[in-house]
Amino acid sequence: MNNSINATTEKSLTELVFRATLHQFPSPEDLAKPIQDATTISDYLQQIQANVAIARDCHTTTKTKQTTYANRKCHPDLKYKVEDKAYLETKDSRLSVKQKERSTKFYSHYVGPFEIYKSQPETSNYMLKLLLKCQIHPKVYAHDLKPAYDNDLTLFPGCVAP
User: pTM of the predicted model, to two decimals?
Assistant: First the structure.
């Protein structure tokens, strides 16, 4: 229990909280009085428990708000099948280029499309048929993939997919 007096307020912490000094044992003058006004340790402990409950409620509220804000941008993973085509995100290779102090201004964000030859949707992992010159591990996570769609020849008659 901290009953040291603050130099600015000239009161102890318990005097600020309870507006009275805290007595562990009642003084003989307090025992002589029929009604006790002295703040006891049990009152102090009850106040601490109330403050802890308030802090827990505030923590729970903050945690709920943070979860709500985080889940706004969270989307379920797309499910890919074998022989589907997908583009691979280049964020990791962009980082390695930046570490060499080069600009990634004109570096594409996705490469591909690559064919998926093994699918594990329960773990969101997929194996891609990559080119031999690619020095990337073929097993990638679903967040690193973007679905590739075939061109609609009625809308774009002259375009042929690479």
Answer: 0.49
Residue type, 44: Y
DSSP state of 25: S
Helix (H) or strand (E) holding 23: none
pLDDT digits over 86-125, tens only? 888 887 777 777 777 777 777 778 887 888 888 887 887 8
Q: Is the peptide bond before 121 cis (omega within 30 degrees of 0)?
A: no
Closest by CA to 117, choosing from 162, 77, 84, is: 84
The closest alpha carbon to 55, from 63, 44, 66, belongs to 63
